[in-house]
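Entry for the shared binder. Reason: the reviewer on the internal report wants the predicted structure included alongside the sequence.
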Amino acid sequence: MSVKKELIVYPDERIHIPCSDVRNFDDTLFEVIEMMKEVIEENDAEGLAAIQTGYPYNIVIVRLDNGSYLELINPRILRYEGKTTAKEKTLYYPDIEIEVPRYEKIKLIYEDRYGKQHHMEAEGKLARVIQRKIDYTFGGTFLTKVKKEIKEAVEKALAENGLVPEVELCPTFSKRVYFLSVADKLLFFMFLTLFAKLFNPSIETLATFYTFDKIGGLAVVFLMIGYFIYGRWEAKKYTSCTSCQVGNMIGSMAKRLIAAIVIGTATYFLVNPAM
C-alpha cells in the first residue's frame, strides 16, 4: 500500500466517516503514522486524527510541547473529571477559533504502534487536544460540541470565505409517505367496520372488529409520530429541501389523527359488542 499525504479541510464530508479500529500493526500503519507527523509539521498543528488525512482508522497523533509525538492507536476515554471551556482551532476549519467545552482531566486506554496496550491520564491542553482528535474518530468535529447558533455562525463565516458544503438536493420522493400510506389503509378498514352491524354478524365477529379498531387507532398514532420524526430527520439531511416543512407534516398528521378519533368514537357506539 502506498500512503498518500493529504489534508482534509472543510467542506470535505469525508471527515464525518466513523473510523475503524486498527487490527494490523504492520508497515502500512507505520507509514500512515509517519505521514501524519509530516502533515503536523508542515501545518504547525497540535495533532491529527487519521481521518483528517483521508484514512478512516482510529489513530490519533499529538505533538507534545517538547517536540516529541504521542501515538494513540485505538484510543478510548475511560474516565473524565471536571469541565472547562477554552478557545480551540483545528486544521479542518481554516482560520476559525471558538470556545469549546471539554473535560478538564481524562483517563484513557490506547495501543502503541506495536499493539501493546497502555493507560494514561491527561489534563489541561493535552487533554483538550486528545478529546478534539478523538471526536474526529467518531465522525464529529468541535462544532458538535457547541450550541446551534455558534455552529451556524461558523458555517456562515466559512461561506463568506467561499467555503460552502455541497448541497444535497431533496429527493422528489420521500420514504415518509409510507407512514401515511399504512395509516390510510388502517383508517379505511376501520371505517368499513362501522357498517358491520348491517350484516348481522355474531358477537364474536363484532368483538374481533372492535379489537382491530382499537389496535388500528393506536397504530395510526404511532405511525404519525414516526412520520414526523422521519420527516424532521429528512429535512435536516437534505439542506435544500423545500417540501419538508413542519407545517405540511403537521397538516398531514392532523387529518389522520382527527380521522382516527372520529372513527374510534363511532366504533365505540357502532361496533362495540357491549352496546
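Summary line for the report: Residues 13-160 form a domain with the Peptide Deformylase fold (CATH 3.90.45.10).
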